[in-house]
Amino acid sequence: MDLSRFRRDYLKGGLSRSSLAPEPVRQFTTWFEQARAAEIAEPTAMVLATVDANGQPSQRAVLLKYYDDSGLVFFTNYESRKAREMAVNPRVSLLFLWLELERQVRISGIASRISAVESARYFMTRPKDSQVAAWVSSQSHALSSRRMLLQKFQEMKRKIGEGKVPLPSFWGGYRVRPEEVEFWQGRKNRLHDRFLYTRRDGGGDWKIERLAP
């Protein structure tokens, strides 16, 4: 199928050096709040890229649950493919794609597990059925049928009853500490605006550069 004529121009805005915040978390917050205001369906959705021991990359969408100056946090099963790959190579990439605003944010950094206490604090905010689901899903492993999965889910619900759902030892959060953050704004004639924040010497200061589109 020839898609060479399938194109559109980007006309919704621009990005200048003078408008940028001095550090990427503040700039990300501005864009994220604008994405929420635009009522984008899943503004917290981000593509997580990992690499296995053989150098094979893989990608999947995960949800950002919170962030601050120390990094961006998401949650998963510690036996999932992404968790196994991060154990081998903690260098990851995140991508937020907000097409309605003609924007994307790319983040490269180091992933590490958060503490069990921090994971439990978030786990208790999840709906109870979602807590139960964390117990019954052997994420990324082969499953004989959906019927079997639902059967395990109902059995676990009966077992727990009205009690609290404990945090599974095989489930928790990761924090990605950014080393590079790129903000991309679509522009007319493919002359897009791109600005790259790079952490200086592993510290808290950031260098900002405009990149060619």
Explain this structure.
Residues 171-213 form the Pyridoxine 5'-phosphate oxidase dimerisation C-terminal domain. The chain has a single domain, classed as Pnp Oxidase, Chain A (Roll), CATH 2.30.110.10. The mean pLDDT is 95. Helices cover 25% and strands 33% of the residues. It has helices spanning 24-37, 81-88, 116-123, 128-136, 146-160, and strands at residues 45-51, 57-63, 66-68, 71-77, 91-98, 103-113, 171-185, 193-199, 206-211. It contains 5 helices and 9 strands, in the order H-E-E-E-E-H-E-E-H-H-H-E-E-E. Strands 1, 2, 3, 4, 5, 6, 7, 8 and 9 form a 9-stranded antiparallel β-sheet that branches.
Short précis:
This protein is of the alpha+beta class and 213 residues long.
N-to-C series of helices and strands: HEEEEHEEHHHEEE
| Basic shape | globular
Structural class: alpha+beta
Could you tell me the strand content as a percent range? 25-35%
Question: Mind sketching the topology for me?
Answer:
Elements lengths: L23 H14 L7 E7 L5 E7 L2 E3 L2 E7 L3 H8 L2 E8 L4 E11 L2 H8 L4 H9 L9 H15 L10 E15 L7 E7 L6 E6 L2
Antiparallel strand pairs: 1-2, 1-5, 3-4, 4-7, 5-6, 6-7, 7-8, 8-9
Helix pairs in contact: 4-5
Name some characteristics of this structure.
213 residues, alpha+beta, Pnp Oxidase, Chain A, nine-stranded antiparallel beta sheet, pyridoxamine phosphate oxidase activity
